[in-house]
Structures are given as structure tokens and as C-alpha cells.
Amino acid sequence: MGAQRLGALSGVVAILLIFAGEAVAGSTPNGTSSVAKVAAFYDKHATAQTTSGVLLSLGALLFLVFSATLAARLRRVEGEPFGASGLCLAGAVVLVVGLGVYAGLSIAIADVAGHVEGSALQTLSVLANDSVFVFLITIGTSAFLLGAAASVLTTEVLPRWLGWLALLVAIVGAIPSHVLGGTLDHIGIAAFAGLGVWTLIVGVLLGVRSTAA
User: Fold this and answer.
1) Which of the listed residues 70, 74, 86, 186 has the most CB atoms within 10 Å of its CB?
2) How do the domains of the chain map onto residue ranges?
3) What is the pLDDT of residues 87-113, one digit of tens each?
4) Rounded-to-10 torsion of CA 152, 153, 155, 157
């Protein structure tokens, strides 16, 4: 199996690991949850948070491999060193940093659960679920997909509909939190799910093309 195919398929594995990590973590307390509720949740689900952190960190690493593979392919077609592929890779780095910090906070919460005051757990929980996840990850998602969209739509290295899909998801991810309110208050997070679908499709497509080449 060639390096190009491995790089492409690493995106598929990355998304599976990342969403498995999210599923294992469960429905974590939000920023308005009481100290008692936060402490009780993490006391009960400490092992799940550790598992989630490990899965997320592995997924982040593989997503970076996929992004580097994709950016290199886009750069070859663009014919310039700092084209849209550069934005794509930069967005991936921001996203991976966000995932890494989020994973680290999950493991840290699991380590200290039951050993520190509930207010300390609440602070870590807010940092993980509001500050880090909502902003770093959605910003990285938008930048990654915006760069990919620009490159695909101008070079047609991938089917154009994938470029339009990436652009749509990037726009959704760029909507700041707490702007629309109600059920759409964190609509940017939906872009992260869209990124997962897009990556699965592109990873499989590039993997098949690498096999046929």
C-alpha cells in the first residue's frame, strides 16, 4: 500500500476515532451546569473521559497526516507554493491544536476528578467544552474547508460538488457562537460534523484514485 493511499485513508480512520472519542465522552455538562452536577458527572465518568482523550488525540494525529497529504496534492495542481492549499493546511493545524488541547483537558479532568473542588472541575469543563472546542475547532474547520474549497473549485482536482460542499460547511463554521441564539446558538459546531462527512468522502475517493494510479 503506497504512502499516498495511506495518507488519504488516514483521514477516514481519523474521523472514526474522533467521533468515537466524542461518543465515549457522552453528554458533558454545559457552562451553566451547577458545580455539584459537574463534579458528580466527572466522578462517575472519569474512565470514559480518559478513553475519549486518547481516541481524540490519535484521531487528531491522523487528521494531520491526511491534511498534509491533501494539501500536497492540491499544491501540485495549483503550481504555486502558497495557494489555497496553504490555508487548508494552516486550518488543519489550528483544528488539530484544538483537538489536542481538548483531549488533554479531558484526560486532566479524569485525573483530578474526586481529588479537587467541584469548582475547579467546572472551570476545566467550561474551558474544554466552550472556549477550546467551540472556537479553536470551528475556526480550524472553517479555514481548512475554505482553503480546500478554493483549490477544488479553481483546479477541479476533485469533483466540483465537493468544493461547493466544503464552501457551504466553511461558511456555517464561521458563524460565531452566541449570535443566532436558541437552537442555533452553536451552529458552528455543525460544521465539525460536516467536516467529518467531507473528509470521509475525500479520503475514500483519494484512496481509490491512488490504488488505480
Assistant:
1) 70
2) 3-212
3) 999 999 999 998 998 888 888 877 777
4) 40
